[in-house]
């Protein structure tokens, strides 16, 4: 059982690490961009699209499969690589990237608009603070003001909201991997439930619990690095 779980764990990490990195940086830069253009047509469009993030990623995954795999036949229906797998390392990597497009796109569509809207709001709140107005009065450039006085104090709440989003994504891995036939922990969990494999179900539950703990631990570490108010050490010194 342990070997089965360890064999599937890297596949889940590849899928969700790729999606989460793309989501974090794309949403961060898009939110910062929109905070400079408050009230623009693009800003209003993001606000209008934010409620679409209420639907889970697998919901959008079904429509992506229908459009790009069934109708347009541009991308594969599911799986991780072609069958049989390409013999060369480059061919295997290209096949993996091709199979990653649809599930990663489903995760992004299911979360990116609400994330941009939320983080853009954080930036707008901090950009109206008195110390930002003082920095403008001192003649600092807009980039320096964004980097020192807006982005840095906004990072702690952004990282907190992103960590909560990660936990939600881990919980939705079972259905998403099943929809895309991705050979990860979620797909293994679904098959174990259907076959009444109690030991595998318990083992996977423990693994998911560890993943959540690691996520929260990384949150604490990153929080201590980006927030100067958090002191690390004995007695907070």
TrEMBL record:
Residue ranges of the TM segments: 12-34, 46-72, 92-117, 158-180, 200-226
Keyword Metal-binding attached: no
Bilayer topology annotation: Multi-pass membrane protein
GO cellular component: plasma membrane
Coiled-coil ranges per UniProt: none
Localization in the cell: Cell membrane
GO BP: transmembrane transport
Pfam family, one: BPD_transp_1
Domain ABC transmembrane type-1 per the UniProt entry, residue ranges: 9-223
Key words, A-Z: Cell membrane, Membrane, Transmembrane, Transmembrane helix, Transport
Record flagged with keyword Transport: yes
Protein name: ABC transmembrane type-1 domain-containing protein
